[in-house]
Design brief:
Layout (H helix, E strand, L loop, with lengths): L11 H5 L1 H8 L10 H4 L14 E2 L10 H6 L12 H5 L10 E6 L5 E4 H5 L5 E8 L4 E11 H8 L7 E6 L19 E5 H5 L4 E6 L2 E2 L9 E3 L12 E7 L6 H5 L23 E4 L7 E2 L7 H4 L13
Length: 312
């Protein structure tokens, strides 16, 4: 039987104190805002600026603030509460140089330094609408480059049908990995055509700055139509495989996290509906969730003929 994390996904203190929390957040006109009550942490210190960034494929929606994006997120390697990454991840000291192993069904296997991966890449500022599985959403200005660029460089063979990603494993620095909340190291996967889609990026920054530790430094996956399901952070291995990989959440809670895990308002999470969402800083689920998180025009063709309730 699959294990369900004891904390579930929503921060425990928010859930257990939801009545007093909601009452304390009510303001004139019935509006609700997220203040320090949720994260109770200072915003992350701003990091180094990135240069030569061009804008591409961005939504026109207003981005969330730096404070919201960097202090309220999931990164189970540092704890299960959404405030844990902002508290504990800044202490993390990534290995230098950061290397990514390229393995499996590809012509150019080996280890690449992050500098080698970024060599020749023009970084792009992509403001993506991101809906998390718990029903909240943000608009985040990522900085990154198409994953397809790296994939083409390493030349997958005809046997490569899926891409498997693995997170760093460091129990000395990543306190969450000392728990049994998930199988470690964390593993995620995409079908090859999903990975090659122009919307799928490897991010190295937000707001034009180097990616903070709590958001997945130094290299993370961003798939805007799967956000909250697939966003593996601190990537150390990319493997090309013929068979569909077993991802960490599929092992842990397959009823909630299938391999495809597209944002789909017609498929309920085992514990709540996904038909609506709350755009932070609001706490009310007043927005209708859009199919594929609003990117249906670009990605629906990837799943033509598939039963998306069965293939979830």
């Amino acid at each position: 039987m699959a294990r369900i994390p004891s904390s579930e996904i929503t921060a425990r203190r928010v859930y257990l104190n939801r009545r007093s929390f909601m009452q304390s957040m009510m303001v004139a006109g019935g509006a609700t805002v997220l203040a320090d009550s949720v994260s109770a942490q200072q915003p992350a210190a701003h990091g180094r600026k990135l240069t030569t960034i061009r804008s591409a494929l961005s939504t026109t929606e207003k981005p969330n603030t730096w404070e919201q994006v960097t202090t309220y997120n999931n990164f189970y390697e540092f704890g299960t509460d959404k405030s844990d990454p902002a508290v504990y991840a800044p202490r993390y000291r990534p290995p230098q140089p950061w290397t990514v192993a390229i393995e499996g069904e590809c012509a150019r296997r080996g280890r690449l330094n992050l500098e080698d991966i970024l060599k020749g890449e023009t970084l792009e500022d992509r403001i993506y609408r991101m809906r998390c599985v718990e029903g909240w959403s943000m608009v985040i200005p990522w900085v990154g480059f198409p994953l397809a660029n790296l994939i083409k460089r390493v030349e997958p063979t005809s046997k490569a049908r899926f891409v498997e990603f693995t997170t760093a494993h460091d129990t000395g620095q990543m306190r969450g990995q000392r728990s049994d909340v998930l199988e470690w190291p964390y593993v995620e996967g995409l079908r090859l055509d999903e990975a090659l889609h122009p919307l799928t990026i490897l991010a190295v920054g937000i707001y034009g700055e180097v990616l903070p530790n709590q958001n997945g430094a130094p290299l993370r996956l961003v798939v805007p139509w799967k956000y909250g399901f697939k966003g593996i952070k601190s990537i150390v291995r990319i493997r090309f495989v013929e068979r569909q990989p077993q991802t960490s959440w599929m092992i842990n809670w397959p009823e909630a996290y299938g391999f495809y895990s597209n944002v789909n308002p017609t498929v309920d999470h085992p514990r709540h509906s996904q038909a609506t969402e709350a755009r932070l800083p609001s706490l009310f689920r007043s927005m209708k969730t859009q199919m594929f998180n609003g990117y249906a025009d670009q990605v629906a063709s990837l799943y033509k003929g598939m039963d998306l309730r069965k293939n979830y």
